[in-house]
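Q: How do we represent a protein-ligand complex in a form that can be generated token by token?
A: Start from the inputs.
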Amino acid sequence: MSTTAQVAGPSGTAPAARLLGWDCLELWVGNARTSAGFLMSAFGFRCTAYAGPETGVRDKASYVLEQGEVRLVVSAALDPASPIAEHVRRHGDGVHDLAWLVDDARGAFEAAVGRVARPVREPWTEGDDGGELVLAQIGTYGETVHTFVDRTRYEGRRLEPGYEADRLPPTPVGPEVGLRAIDHVVGNVEQGRLEDWVGFYAEVLGFEPMLHFSEDQISTEYSALASTVVWDGKQIVMPLNEPATGRRKSQIAEYLDAYGGPGVQHIALRTDDIVASVDALVARGVRFMEVPASYYEEAEERLAGVALAWDDLRRLGILVDRDSEGHLLQIFTETVTDRPAVFFEIIERRGARGFGEGNFKALFEAIERDQARRGNL
Ligand code: FE2
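Then emit the structure tokens for the protein with fe (ii) ion bound:
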């Protein structure tokens, strides 16, 4: 695997955008105050900034939430004509923007659009006494967008002009959760379009395929999907899933129906101590997918020779997988949206670079039990 982030484009085009990392993930929701409150109380985020009528922003309310290097922005419309209101009407609460930090937003936008990305918003600037921020937006799957954010000439940790750090919601009391960084962000795309979207990330952004799982590898008795992981060679890792035809409705098909099209399925957040993190999250009221007891008999065989706190893993329902480079521990929350759409993954990597392929079957069987309870299997 190459670590080149900047690659030569199709002849005559500029090199792909140089991405420096995640800037933030923005969720568009019906009520930002309560969604932010939930992410603070249940997931241990701190609110670090707010924008709304009190700060001179008339059409939306936004809360910036931070933990480790993770930055989420939760926004809601204050006006029925707002695109946020329309997005929520169509999709329910969801992830609208996967924003990347760049050192040249105009160049990134021009390179991407020159390589057939869909322009959403031409480069624009926002300024205040902290300097000037340059931003630009392209579209990806569904109504999801990528914003290129250039902070080179903008001081401080403030998200952007209009955000203030006065009178923020207080941090709820609770055990330290210890989420450190965004590990990966997964998108669900239309059946038959996976290859197109892999091609989009390769061609438009110079991403490389890291792993592919065919529907034969990721299937249960009832449902199937195919998945390809693309990445920028450094830290932006984006698995993409498409549904495959199974005996019943695949979990990806259920998502596409519920969300009203393609979109972000889950956000994986990395911890250095998954047992401590999950203990804290459970204490704070987060509910996780249930894992059948039989999973651990099979897992102990699969992980033979690896010293693991099996009692803790069993007690908390943490899944474990290995690859040639090490092992990883992971767990998935229930969907955090009313529609069965978006959920979080908590992951601890001990060398392994995979995504829990060995867990897919056990995981999907657990998902299908939930789907059956909703009458969608
Ligand atoms: Fe994942």
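The longest strand covers residues 118-128. The radius of gyration is 20 Å.
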